[in-house]
Amino acid sequence: MALACEPRLLIADEPITALDITVQAEILALLDGLVTQRGMALLFISHGLAVVADVADRVAVLKDGSTVESGRTRDIVREPRHAYTRALVNSAWALESELDRLAP
User: Distance between CA 78 and CA 86 in Å, rounded?
Assistant: First the structure.
């Protein structure tokens, strides 16, 4: 229904939370296709930094309802400036490293 009026901006608030990894990938591909086909912007709200880093060109990191850092996703993931952002990025890297270690 949100797409019926052909919005210029689609707000997706935690659209893949509690979905299995296969369905998550399908939803992300669908959103990417819609953005491309319709030429609209997507505001993707998520707690999943790895997903955000994969789908967003720009990111804003919020803590207690306030923006603590914003900019190009690549820059923020590679060189976070704010302590809170650094903690998030380090946590995501640690999880990825652990998953890589456990992979067959």
Answer: 10
pLDDT tens per residue, range 23-63? 999 999 999 999 999 999 999 999 888 889 889 999 999 99
**Which CATH number does 9-102 carry?**
3.40.50.300
Q: How far apart are CA 84 and CA 38, in angstroms?
A: 35
Domains of the chain, residue spans: 9-102
Alpha helices in the chain (DSSP H): 21-38, 49-55, 73-78, 83-102
Q: Please state whether the predicted TM-score (pTM) of the whole model is above 0.85.
A: no
Tokens read off for 56 = 């967003």
Within 10 Å of residue 37's Cβ, how many Cβ atoms? 8
